[in-house]
Amino acid sequence: MTRFDRTRGAALLTALFVLLALTIIGMSAAQTALNAEKSARIERDRHLAFQGAEAGLVDAERDIEGGADPASARAARFAAGSALGFVDGCGAGPAGPNLGLCAYVPAAPAWQLAELADAATAYGTFTGAVLPAGAGALPARLPRYVIELMPLVSAGEDAGQTNGNLYRITAIGFGARDSTHVVLQAFYRKVAPNAASLQ
Length: 199
Known about the structure:
PilX/PilW_C, five-stranded mixed sheet, Pilus assembly protein, PilX_N_dom, alpha+beta
């Protein structure tokens, strides 16, 4: 074997190592790009679910303020000092006036006991609001919420006085995938009309 043949063999071996290194670098770059795209998709889905949950909170506030029909049986549930329809475990039924209304239980908050994804009030049920959902880049499902009646006693008042109601709203929003969801809570105080004029 001549010296020239050994040099050609070493050049071939060097070229193979360089090709292997370039292949590894290329595969690593492709994997990084795929992971970044997947991460961006998950984050976008989470933002969509967050926006849905916020929309659910706003819809619940409209529901408390009378919804689509201020003279309805549902609106009567939110009259000052009323606890009508607020039951342990939350009201059920397809769209009855007690749907998603929960009594305050100190030991176990309603939002922990209620099945938010299925048994809660769907967005627009009592307000008539419309939110597109179910296809493409839209949320997989409409947001849902439960409303829990909380005790409200202001400083200097006894427990018998009421000048409004305090509610804890828990809403769940969904991303483009049904498995992505965000849960948000807010407190909402509905002031009685006569109390509002005194303040």
